[in-house]
Amino acid sequence: MKVLVTGGAGFLGRRVVQRLLASGHRRVFVARSRDFDLRRQPDVRRLLDISRPRTIIHLAAVVGGIGANRAHPGQFFFENLIMGTTLMEEARLRAVKKFVAIGTVCAYPKHTAVPFREDSLWDGYPEETNAAYGLAKKMLLVQGQAYRSEYGFNSIFLLPTNLYGPGDNVDPTSSHVIPALIRKCVEAVETGAPFIEVWGDGSASREFLYVDDAAEAIVLATERFDGPEPVNLGAGDEVTIKALVTLIARQCGFKGEVRWDTSKPNGQPRRCLDTSRAEELFGFRAHTSFDEGLRKTIDWYRARTLARHRDDIPGGWVAGETITLLRGDVRGVKSLA
After folding, report:
1. Model's pTM, two decimal places?
2. Per-residue b/e over 76-87, b at no fewer than 16 CB within 10 Å?
3. Which of 33, 104, 308, 325 is the most buried (most CB within 10 A)?
4. Is residue 41 within 8 Å of 87, Cβ to Cβ?
């Protein structure tokens, strides 16, 4: 089937595209932000007119860690909301057969019983530092269920937990906790710095899903699941930030002091998902151990200068190992020759 992947050249998107191709989907369109601005309805329409997908996997998002969420709540709310609602509406108008909406664990209430079960999604307000982002993404669930009810539109909603792995964002102004800690520890070892500084007090806990496992889950759901209920994607385990710092420091060889900046927020107190629904509905269970995933991520970071752009995916149609050049109206799509 023809599959459009928004954000298909990003951290998670590259893996999803590769997984689709490996699973036998021979026609995958990668939508890049430099070619299509999904905040603009004309660009969304042009993208769908060019790609004419049967299925859409919507991965594109404006996202970051606690610092970025605190600094840009308005931007994160509006841009994520407008991208999702516009894309789903235009997909409905073109009778797209399936829409795979990717939500976020940030959509859960701040105080949710652990492990988080999908039925708890509406039991309270999200943690304040990422509420704007979480609520914007959760509106994809509302829109999808409303469209299913009124129009018979097949939209599914997946809730991945925090992702990590090679290729993650390591920009200190916008990165999530694992790449941020890896960068701090590796740079401290390289420069001989006696300490690193970490936000919060280390008491919060998080669950992490290796990016390749997340891609596998998304493709399995795309192929096998057509229900209205939200579905968690996770590994089913949690680790405190304090324990996480210890693990990363040990694997990076950092033996200095960890200084906790308690003037900065911890974020949500705990995050750990009940992942039984994903296994029951489409057979997904994470298989990458946390130690193995961390090792691969740290190895990648140390070699990132050599690896940069090696697995970059251009915008346009990707068919197996070849790029099929578009014919006709290709405005906004860079030449792939």
Report:
1. 0.89
2. bbebbbbbbebb
3. 104
4. no
Q: What percent of the chain has pLDDT over 70?
A: 92
Does 324 score more than 90 pLDDT? no
Mean pLDDT of 224-236: 97
CA distance 9 to 30: 7
Instruction: Supply the pLDDT for residue 100.
Output: 98
How far CA 244 is from CA of 85, 240, 265, 290, in Å, comes to 36, 6, 17, 10
Residue 221 to residues 54, 224, 278: CA-CA distances in angstroms?
15, 5, 8
Distance CA 120, CA 131 (A): 16
CB 325 within 8 A of CB 337: yes
Rounded to the nearest 10°, the torsion over CA 202, 160, 79, 125 is: -60
Q: Which residues on adjacent β-strands are paired with residue 157?
A: 101
For the chain, the residue count is 337
What's the rounded Cα separation, in Å, for the pair 154 and 224? Answer: 13
- Looking at the annotation, which residues are catalytic? 133
Taking each helix axis as running N to C, give the angle between helix 177-191 and helix 241-252, from 0 to 180 degrees, rounded to the nearest 10: 40
Structure tokens at 235: 């590994």
